Amino acid sequence: MLNFIQVLIDAAALGSLYALVALAIGLVFGIMRLINFAQGDYLTIGAYSLVVPTASVTPPLLFGALPWPLMVAAVLATCMIAALLTERIAFRPLRNANPATLLISSFAVSYFLQHALMLVHTGRPKSVAIGASLAQAIDIFGVRIPGLQLVTMITTVTLLIAFVILLKKTAIGIQMRAAAENFQMARLLGVKANKVIAFGFALSGFLAGTVSLLLVAQTGTLDIRMGIMPVIYAFFATVIGGMGSLAGAALGGFLVGVTSVLLQAYLPPDLRPFRDAGVFALVILILLAYPKGLIPSSASRERV
Amino acid sequence: MSTVAQDGGLHARDVHVAFGGLKALKGVDLKLKRGEVLGLIGPNGAGKTTMVNVLTGFQAATSGDVTLDGRSLSGLGPRNVARAGVARSFQAARLFRDLTVRQNLEVAGIGSGKKRKEARGLADALLDWIGCGNKSDLLAGSLPYGDERRIGIARALALSPKYVLLDEPASGMNDQECDALMRLIAEIPDRFDCGVLLIEHNMQVVMGACRRVHVLDNGKSLAEGTPAEMRANAEVRRAYLGTKSDRGQLI
To answer: Is the pTM of this model over 0.90?
Structure first.
């Protein structure tokens, strides 16, 4: 029983991470119909900003050497700047392009960023230790919860609540939701496209920075391709949640993460290498039952 | 009279629109003043919707010009025309379904440069005015049709426009709703210092809300005058007698 609870906590922590990435992808998709695969690379850039660019596999720390509040702020800022730059340079000129063109260009941006990082940091995986104090487990009613998982879950819940308030209560949030539902109409009513889209990208960068910190603290490794799997999982999460629906993206991310951990824990050992296949089977099953996703957005209702 | 006063108003001069070989508008002259409700009527296919699209920048005129208080609107496009002060409502209200009713109006208020508080205050005032004050926290997607239409008009007014163009606001409404709508439309010029161009099939609403009516037929301006003059105008009667739907109501 205790073991099961531990597994559930693992599952919830990973689900939280995917929910954050999915939320970022859903946010940008909602506003400009771009499935941004470069989202994973913002995360990678944020992670690499912790260390000084060298060829070493145990590089000296850069932002990682700062006191933790400054480190968090520096990594978040790095990811937000990366997101804003890609928006300005790569995606803004394509704003009126169709979603397929946008998708392909996001692949191009993603490859570009990965290779740019490789030029600076080399392609070898590196190790980095941050957040060592979070490794300690906290005992709650006999269940030992690693501090980091607790932080991950608390951060996710806090961010989700903050996002709900931001989107429902603030002027920019209301404009973003209006633009996500009907971009043309929102612009006719004076909503400024550049501002709303840049804000969406900044938020997606903020989320990428958060995930990169939590992920690096957990794994202690840096890899040029570390953003790829989270972004693929998060993409599936937004699909099963309902494209364009933020609540759906968060829920989908959570489901995908939880399923992944449960399969890892309870599949017979011989089948564990096929864990991802199990997750994708879940995606297919959910889409068969709910073709528009679990929580479809109004925009998708109208378009069909 | 100063030149500004002479050129004041939303003024279309000799507007032509051709879609390939099809001539939708063949010379329309129309002037909307800030303090009035002008009706724009005509049989189906007369070019009313095309005219609205030209006035709001959705459709470029093939020739001719539209000016707003003396300034040409040619080539501006719908967003800049809206920013210049010409708002419109749509036949389908096109509300943001996932936003609350109040937020739908707030988007327009904020978009036209108001502070959040000001936008909210205006939204509440507009909703009270149209009788939807008790529905401001409902999701717009959950509303009955008649409410949706009135809120679409209120949202256009939340932009604080100089002129508002209402595209068949009464369509699909019952008689009671039409009466209420007619009174609201008639109040707009004084209450919001905003001229209204009312495109409408329902002649009761047009006759009740407008002091002046402009008749389009076959892409051309056919006549303009008071509702009573239009009722008595032989040419207008002939244009309408050719069609079935509006004949009884006009005469």
So the answer is: no
